[in-house]
Amino acid sequence: MNVVWTDVAQKTHQNNLDYLLQEWPNQVLINYIDELDQVIVRISNNPYLFPIYNRKKKIHKCVLNRNLSLYYQVLKDDVILLLFWNTQQNPKSLKL
């Protein structure tokens, strides 16, 4: 399947990269990028691998680590990356 990044996914991903770069050793950032690349490949090969978050909108939730989740949508031949969500935020502010 094709993987498509929304503008929001790109922005929230970049925010996470910036945070890691500022607050953590470089190796943490490198490990995160490697793990994310692997997860995206897994999702593109099997988009239903991670649990459904919103059945009506066909949104799935992938927990990347205890602080970060990826929300994505499966549409025909595309996996749409919607948002990277810092789990320390107020869940009521999550808009999908």
What does this structure look like?
The protein is α+β, with helices and mostly antiparallel strands. The protein has one domain (2-88): 2-Layer Sandwich (YaeB-like fold). It has helices at residues 7-23, 26-45, and strands at residues 2-5, 52-54, 59-65, 68-75, 78-86. The chain has a five-stranded mixed β-sheet. The radius of gyration is 13 Å and the shape is globular.
Taking the alpha carbons of the first and last residues, their distance comes to 22 Å
| CATH fold description | YaeB-like fold
DSSP strand tally = 5
Spatial order of strands in the largest sheet: 1-5-4-3-2
Please supply descriptive tags for the structure shown above.
YaeB-like fold; 39% helix; 32% strand; five-stranded mixed β-sheet; alpha+beta
Topology of helices and strands:
Blueprint: E1 2-5, H1 7-23, H2 26-45, E2 52-54, E3 59-65, E4 68-75, E5 78-86
Parallel strand pairs: 1-5
Antiparallel strand pairs: 2-3, 3-4, 4-5
Summarize the structure.
The protein has 96 residues and is an alpha+beta fold. It contains 2 helices and 5 strands.
